[in-house]
Amino acid sequence: MPVIEYSGARVNVDDEGYIVNFEDWNGDVACALAEKEGVEELTKEHIDILKFIREYYRAHHFFPVLNAICKNVHQPKNCVNEKFMDPLVAWKIAGLPAPDDLIINLLKYGQSPG
Questions:
Q1: Which residues lie closer than 8 Å to 79 by C-beta, 6 or more apart?
Q2: What is the pTM of this model?
């Protein structure tokens, strides 16, 4: 199983780079995942988005509607697309489990049930 390393710790990821254990995520892990996804820097705005995504996922077992993320973190309505370019990148950096094909298709086309 692949591993990413950060600040002296090791975290297991699957073959596509998704964290295996949801609880292994923290700010350092997010930075390591972001680097692998080509996001050069995680700002406070990025972290606010990621934390909201994680809390929503923890409560509902699904990715929140994109506009709801931005509204709840008090950012412009396209904040996820502006900060991450692709909701699937935000999903991965937020440390959510690997999405299935349905989720991938919904997020690719800017749709999310909710």
A1: 45, 49, 69, 70, 73
A2: 0.86
Q: Three-class SS of residue 17?
A: coil
Query: Does residue 81 sit within a domain?
Result: yes
Complete DSSP assignment for 46-72: HHHHHHHHHHHHHHHSSPPPHHHHHHH
Residue 114 placed within a domain = no
The total number of structural domains in the chain stands at 1
- Give per-residue pLDDT as tens, 61-83: 888 888 889 899 999 888 888 88
pLDDT of residue 4: 87
Alpha-carbon span 81 to 79, nearest angstrom: 6
- Coil/strand/helix, residue 30: helix
